[in-house]
Design a protein that fits this description.
Shape: elongated
Number of helices: 7
CATH architecture of the largest domain: 2-Layer Sandwich
Structural class: alpha+beta
CATH class of the largest domain: Alpha Beta
CATH topology of the largest domain: D-amino Acid Aminotransferase, Chain A, domain 1
Order of helices and strands: EEEEHEEHHEEHEHEEEEEHEEEEH
Strand content: 25-35%
């Protein structure tokens, strides 16, 4: 994001600032002194309000204003005249967060952005304060920053929200169990006495993790290791009609494992496209199909997404956090090979069904 001399000039903390990050852990941290929050599934956003100027900055320092004009308008109407806040932009549809709809909001055409702002308006959920007025709050304890946030946004109304927070471990555990049904993907744990540390992983995130068995339908070479190292495996599950649908990839391999996989997969490359359920995706005419393993999109940022087919005869057990529609929301984690299971047994039926939870109740809990 360009940060010319006039950008946020009247603020105690000026853009760009890389947000504080989190480490993943398996369960809520022990001991006292923690503040817990739901983990929102959206776009990280630092907001710099300097009187008539409002800059919405992404996690990697890019400006998001043009993609969320309705959010910018609400921020100018509701935030203090000079402040810097940390939060998340989300899209809520049908009582739950819709990350796929949120992704569609990043569009190069202004007319499309205007249309989507009406059809799938975004909200913003805040959880931290970096600055207010002339004061830089980054060195203040999080518990004080949280109290200030609640004061600053006590009269906020949709689409501006304050995230729920608690020190009660039993409530946080309940959130972890229930809120996933509204599209939230875990719980954050923050030290009540902690300072704000840009670009440092000093918070903790506890996310759901499950396992399932997938048929392996292809692979991608590791970057810089074509023909010598496997980068990722392309995973599939059979739908009710028996068709193998691409659901994501797993890629957590060591350098040694990547090399070993070359030999293991070689026999399955022979005549792999003959009768392959994804063979039509190998044709250029299908390059724009977003469900295809090698499809390009505005999210691929020039990455080589070409893939190599495999006869879908191998079964891999993988760990995943949650599904986004019929796809893994994040890269799955390889666990082991399942020589005892047939690929046709890898179906969507094995996936855990998450009970729905009304998102409006979670928004209200932050008041």
């Amino acid at each position: 994001m360009a940060s010319g001399p006039q950008r946020g000039a009247g603020l105690a903390v000026r853009p760009p600032v890389l947000p504080m990050l989190a480490k993943r852990i398996g369960e809520l941290p022990g001991g006292e002194g923690w503040i817990f929050e739901p983990k929102w599934d959206g776009f990280r956003a630092l907001v710099f309000r300097d009187r008539d100027e409002c800059i919405v900055q992404s996690r990697d320092g890019k400006e998001l204003n043009r993609y969320f004009p309705e959010v910018v308008g609400s921020l100018l109407a509701q935030l203090p005249e000079r402040c810097v806040l940390d939060g998340e932009i989300v899209v809520a549809r049908g009582g739950a967060l819709d990350f796929e709809a949120l992704q569609q909001r990043i569009h190069p055409a202004a007319s499309r952005v205007t249309l989507l702002a009406r059809e799938s308006p975004a909200s913003i959920v805040f959880w931290d304060v970096l600055a207010e007025g002339d004061r830089d709050w980054q060195k203040s304890p999080f518990q004080d920053r949280r109290a200030l946030l609640e004061t600053l946004l006590c009269a906020a109304h949709p689409p501006v929200h304050v995230t729920p927070a608690t020190r009660d471990r039993s409530i946080a555990t309940d959130w972890f169990d229930r809120f996933e049904g509204a599209g939230l993907d875990g719980v954050m744990a923050k030290a009540a006495a902690g300072t704000y540390e840009p670009n440092q992983r000093v918070m903790f995130k506890v996310k759901h993790e499950r396992e399932c068995d997938c048929a392996v339908g292809g692979f991608r070479w590791h970057k810089g290791g074509a023909d010598t190292e496997i980068g990722s495996l392309l995973l599939g599950l059979h739908d009710p009609t028996g068709t193998l649908q691409h659901v994501g990839v797993c890629a957590n391999f060591s350098a040694l494992k990547r090399r070993e996989l070359v030999g293991l997969l070689t026999p399955y490359r022979r005549d792999a496209l003959v009768g392959h359920p994804w063979q039509h995706w190998a044709a250029p005419a299908h390059a724009a199909n977003s469900r295809a393993p090698g499809a390009k999109s505005r999210w691929s940022q020039g990455k080589d997404l070409s893939w190599e087919p495999l006869r879908p005869e191998l079964v891999a057990q993988v760990g995943y956090d949650h599904m986004q529609g019929t796809r893994f929301r994040h890269t799955a984690q390889f666990r082991r090979w399942r020589e005892d299971k047939k690929p046709i047994e890898c179906t969507f039926e094995q996936l855990e069904v998450v009970a729905p939870h009304e998102l409006a109740a979670i928004f209200a809990a932050g008041r």
